[in-house]
């Protein structure tokens, strides 16, 4: 009888310890990459901070940890030559986890030459700013 109680207590302790080890930490932006494209897992392809004239698409790959459907991740592009907000996108997350979120900004006429800021917001707070240019 004592053996059954000890074994049951050990099983409960093991299950409890494994549940504690599986809890998610705080959501955080780990890395932001400006790139020409992303792969099928949304990882950056051809990273660069300088794009050629007449570029029509610019991608940003954001590596994020512990993202849940309740979290909000968005990017706002600012054209620094005029300080105008030229685009804004928000990520849709259906399940919890860590990995890459990608954003693709398309400007059919080609992005104007100059400097740009990509302002990355996590849960409506500025998490990071990345600068790139079209030259």
Q: Can you give a write-up of this model?
A:
This protein has 135 residues and is mainly beta. It has 1 helix and 9 strands. The chain has one domain (26-134): Immunoglobulin-like, CATH 2.60.40. The strands form 2 sheets. A 5-stranded mixed β-sheet has the order 3-9-8-5-6, with no helix packed on it. It has a 4-stranded antiparallel β-sheet with strand order 2-1-4-7, with no helix packed on it. The termini are far apart. The relative contact order is 0.23.
CATH topology: Immunoglobulin-like
Q: What count of domains describes the coordinates?
A: 1
Strand arrangement across the biggest beta sheet: 3-9-8-5-6
| Number of strand elements | 9
Radius of gyration: 21 Å
Distance between the termini: 78 Å
Top CATH class: Mainly Beta
**Broad shape:** globular
List its salient traits.
135 residues; mainly beta; Immunoglobulin-like; five-stranded mixed sheet; four-stranded antiparallel sheet; 1 helix; 9 strands; 53% strand; globular
Question: Would you kindly provide a brief summary of this structure?
Answer:
The protein has 135 residues and is mainly beta. It has one helix at 2-21; strands at 28-38, 44-47, 50-51, 57-67, 73-79, 84-90, 97-106, 114-122, 125-134. It has a single domain (26-134), classed as Immunoglobulin-like (Sandwich).
SSE layout and pairing:
Elements: H1 2-21, E1 28-38, E2 44-47, E3 50-51, E4 57-67, E5 73-79, E6 84-90, E7 97-106, E8 114-122, E9 125-134
Parallel strand pairs: 3-9
Antiparallel strand pairs: 1-2, 1-4, 4-7, 5-6, 5-8, 8-9
């Amino acid at each position: 009888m004592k053996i059954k109680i000890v074994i049951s207590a050990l099983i409960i302790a093991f299950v409890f310890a494994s549940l504690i080890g599986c809890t998610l930490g705080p959501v955080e932006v780990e890395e932001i990459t400006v790139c020409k494209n992303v792969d099928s897992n949304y990882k950056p392809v051809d990273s660069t901070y300088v794009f050629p004239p007449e570029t029509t698409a610019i991608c940003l790959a954001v590596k994020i940890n512990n993202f849940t459907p309740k979290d909000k991740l968005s990017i706002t592009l600012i054209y620094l030559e005029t300080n105008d907000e030229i685009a804004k996108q928000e990520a849709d997350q259906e399940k919890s986890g860590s990995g890459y979120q990608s954003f693709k900004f398309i400007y059919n006429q080609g992005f104007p030459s100059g400097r740009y800021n990509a302002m990355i917001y996590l849960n409506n707070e500025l998490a990071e700013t990345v600068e790139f240019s079209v030259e």
